[in-house]
Batch of 2 targets.
Target 1
Amino acid sequence: MPTTTTDRRRRVAVVGISLSDCGRVDEATPYALHAQAARRALADSGLDRSVIDGLASAGLGTLAPVEVAEYLGLRPRWVDSTSVGGATWEVMAAHAADAIAAGHANAVLLVYGSTARADIRARRRTGNLSFGSRGPLQFEVPYGHSLIAKYAMAARRHMHEYGTTLEQLAEVAVRARANAALNPEAMFREPVTVDEVLDGPMIADPFTKLHCCIRSDGGCAVLLAAEEYVPDTAKAPVWVLGTGTHVSHTTMSEWEDFTVSPAAVSGRLAFERAGVRPADVELAEIYDAFTYMTLVTLEDLGFCAKGEGGAYVTEKDGLPVNTDGGGLSACHPGMRGLFLLVEAVRQLRGEAPGLQVRRPDGSLPELAVASGTGGWFCSSGTVVLGRG
């Protein structure tokens, strides 16, 4: 049994991953999706459930993650309920990796599940236009400043500053759908064209419907463990090499530059701590609630210069991005950040259900990055993963 204390920082690996049923799931509860994903991830790891002494969960229950832990039959001694929107899971992964490295936990389960689509269809909830009207947000909500409008404003600013075009933004949606077409688990797989994206119904200028993420049901889980457990796992480990987190703003008036996301800081930190450069990375899983998020995050992670994202996303042989189809086409049940980690690990293991990234010689990639964004570019978490 691995020790719970250490005189050095232990290496941390992803040892288990899984999705629950995703897409259209009308008969399950969010708790059931949590449990399904957790059981599958544990089975994927080959470890016994008794090794889990940490739990990270957000978005479900009055006392998350206490209620989720009880439902799963766990009694963790390390917990995290950080909630910063879509970046939650990358931030939690950073916290969990630090806790394991320091000996405060040995194996931490990150788990998520949501029936966002089914709840609306069954009229258990309505679509949310904003996150609320208390605190600083009270100064924006009366003016109809909806969630999507904030992303749309940022996109328009980038277009104004750098000449980014609607066609370039549309290309992000086209490529996401092309990747989804190869993924049997994706919710929408029918190819789309730039013209079809541009001609769709307007949601918030400049975003038409296909510029926006889908709404699905689904869940997933990731199990992180200390290096001592790796010899007993069912599959080769994927190591957490470096992480970074950052929060920027909540009110738009406090956002200094609409063309810079918090990934500019979280990405720099993650790469520095991993000891790698963006040019070393072979694939990226990026939060894509809207097409602009993909474009600006690629810039801010350093894959291209600021203002060059429009040209970068149209490059024929560019970096593989959102290889499962992303939130724009594969699945988006709410806080999608944990799905980014699952897909990155699948790619590094060579287990991608659809598009599998390979090097020119046919070998598997060595380095991947998962970068989540929360709120309206309010927060970011970036995780660098590697096989070595």
Note: DSSP finds twelve helices and eleven strands in the chain.
Target 2
Amino acid sequence: MRDARLQKLAANLVGYSIDVQPGENVLIDLIGLELELGKCLIEEVTKRGGRPFVELSDRSVLRTMLTHATKEQIELWSKLDLERMEQMQGYIGVRSGSNVNELSDVPKEKMRLYEQLYTHPVHMEERVKRTKWVVLRYPTPSMAQLANMSTEAFEDFYFNVCNLDYAKMDRAQDPLQSLMSRTDRVRIVSPGTDLTFSINGIGAKKCSGQRNIPDGEVFSAPVRDSVNGVITYNAPSVYSGTTFQNISFTFENGKIVKATSNDTAKLNEILDSDEGARYIGEFAIGFNPYILHPMNDILFDEKIAGSLHFTPGQAYEETDNGNRSSIHWDLVLIQRPEYGGGEIYFDDVLIRKDGVFVLPELEALNSENLK
């Protein structure tokens, strides 16, 4: 007998997140072979008159594939998968696996080719822009380890997060989306951080379970050349299999002119991928009430209550500042008191202090009101 929490999650993903309609093609992309959720998703898509298609893959196999792949092979691989993605109206990506660092020793040139020739056209250009999509992690013992929790406790946490009432959250986000859409100047202050930029004319997009599970953010983007100052992130981040800590960026007129971390050389290699990698493509404020601490998994970490993320690389089409890049790297700063606190100002007005929204119209987004 299947776990009822899995069936509820599948129903939410299919019925709420991507709202499958009769006749729509839906690609169910299972990375890590979590088969029970995959079966539930197939059943839910079919119930709504959709047509499910399934991809099964494994990160350790991908590691071997990339290590030996040629440029011509990746180009053909991309062409074939792009043709399939173009036939899809919906996409559900389930990510799991036993080792978050599985790709850490793939040669950097092979990773660069994979990101530029495969990930960018298939996912960033086609899937993100032209399908109804949602992606999520699946609870595994390795994720429980990252969260410093037992496997059973982590599963309870996971289903609390993923089966949250996202329709309620959606309504609570309206005032923040409206405020960001009419804001010009933003200032962020935290230990090691004093950053200013403009979001004038960029707009804002709310995220409440239609694209990511878990969810809980409103995002915009800075005017590309408006960013000045310093930001120091306090959540670790895994990128291409490497865990980075204590990342700090110094900006001049939008560009990252200095970047340091526990692996400064590799950090700068990533930022030198292309011109857009040293400019910011996203600014977002996170507020999922059940996610309180980083666990080296960006789908969770970027939604941490009292957090923000400030993202080098590609801008989203919905809040487009014109920045183009093969990367999109969400990096997280937590501003709750136990992480050093901090403030966000919109047009010189304090909107959030130490992770708590202080404007009356935004208080519905505070954790006690979202649970």
Note: The radius of gyration is 20 Å.
